[in-house]
Design brief:
The chain is of the alpha/beta class. The protein is built from 12 helices and 12 strands. A 7-stranded parallel β-sheet has the order 8-9-7-10-11-6-12, sandwiched between helices.
């Protein structure tokens, strides 16, 4: 099995991460980064070129129907690659199910969990009545989180960040006005996630030319996620120092910082924005992965050919596509609230989050308290009251 395939650690519990596909690349002299389907790049590191060859050949021992080979041709031979995609993780998971008396799959961000049951258990013949699902609540009290779905901005423009509408200047400007208002009432740091790096920079340049960025900067110093990983530590240090300095209350109107990030980027996983570093998290739109990605296209085609339709008639590929988006959302908004005394508000800026089918795929501790705001004033008022109550308790 290739070094990038699923690894099952059988001690007391078994931890499984089920992404869109697992891959093993062969590229000499250097293997290119692996695209996960959401835009982020994961570097493939090998100690020896022969290990790359060995790993790729080992992956080819899987059955033809369980994987695909993707050929990426580039201008230079050294930039081209052969990639093996394991589309059926159950062939390896079946061994675990046969040999273990009980299997526990656990993780911090597993919602939505339907694919774990469908692709790991059902395909291995496990009966539904033998699968027990348990979800823990959060360690914080219910009044320490304020999740809001913002359907419209301050001027009444609908937040529609679909691919067809997200470049509309009216929508982009409305988002800027909403953030400017949010920055007035939220203390400390505000972390805002965008679907892609290119879209984040396009919005940033639009705000710069329209004057909205200057308006935001009157309350929060603006930082943005860099493309180079080597610059991340320095950025986070500046961001934290800015918030600490401005929290002293003697720095004029500026009350903290705004950090513009990318879903699936360097700051959406493994980074803790606890306390004043993340008093508010804003999710702009729904970060669906690139449906034209060859890896994702193969995975969706495979699911449609091997998995039955859902009871509501939806295809397995459609469910997978939506789940990839919501897993990315849940991973990003989970960057805030990192301990029992922490508190934060979460803004889901897109009218589509009001749909019950989308809401059901949020973690229960967020979805159960989600307030749908059809007008911005309702959300703004709730946010102001939320932070006033926290200041009174201090």
């Amino acid at each position: 099995m290739c070094s990038h395939a699923l690894l099952f650690h059988v001690v007391i519990a078994i931890q499984v991460k089920l992404p869109s596909s697992r891959s093993c690349s062969l590229a000499l002299p250097a293997a290119p980064p692996t695209n996960t389907g959401r835009g982020e790049q994961v570097a493939v590191v090998m100690n020896s070129p022969l290990m790359v060859v060995e790993s790729f050949l080992s992956a080819l021992t899987n059955a033809d129907k369980d994987g695909r080979i993707v050929v990426a041709r580039r201008a230079k031979v050294g930039q081209s690659s052969l990639k093996y995609l394991l589309l059926n993780p159950s062939v390896h998971f079946a061994t675990v199910l046969r040999e273990a008396r009980a299997v526990i799959i656990t993780g911090g961000t597993m919602q939505p969990v339907s694919e774990f049951k469908d692709q790991l258990f059902a395909t291995c013949g496990v009966e539904p009545n033998k699968i027990v699902e348990f979800s823990c609540g959060h360690v914080i009290p219910p009044d320490h989180i304020l999740p809001l779905c913002l359907c419209k901005g301050p001027s009444g423009v609908e937040f529609d960040f679909t691919y067809q509408q997200r470049s509309n200047n009216a929508v982009v400007d409305e988002l800027g006005r909403a953030l400017a208002n949010i920055c007035v009432v939220v203390p400390g740091g505000v972390v805002c996630f965008f679907p892609s790096y290119d879209y984040k920079m396009a919005v940033y340049h639009r705000w710069s030319s329209s004057g909205l960025l200057d308006r935001i900067a009157k309350k929060k110093q603006v930082f943005w996620e860099p493309k180079l990983a080597s610059q991340v530590d320095g950025l986070l240090l500046q961001y934290a120092r800015c918030i600490e300095f401005n929290s002293k209350g003697d720095t004029g109107a500026v009350s903290g910082a705004l950090l513009l990030c990318v879903v699936g980027g360097k700051l959406s996983e493994g980074i803790n924005f606890s306390d004043d570093l993340g008093r508010c998290v804003v999710m702009v739109g729904m970060p669906y992965p690139n449906i034209k990605s060859p890896e994702l296209a193969e995975k969706m085609k495979y699911l449609n050919s091997t998995m039955p339709r859902r009871a509501d008639g939806s295809l397995a590929s459609q469910v997978h596509y939506e789940n990839l988006c919501m897993k990315a959302v849940n991973q990003s908004i989970g960057r805030a609230i990192r301990h029992s005394k922490d508190y934060s508000c979460i803004f889901l800026a897109d009218h589509r989050y009001a749909r019950p089918s989308v809401r059901d795929k949020l973690p229960h501790w967020i979805g159960s308290q989600l307030q749908v705001c059809q007008d911005f004033g309702t959300g703004f008022s709730a946010t102001r009251k939320f932070f006033i109550s926290k200041q009174v308790k201090k």
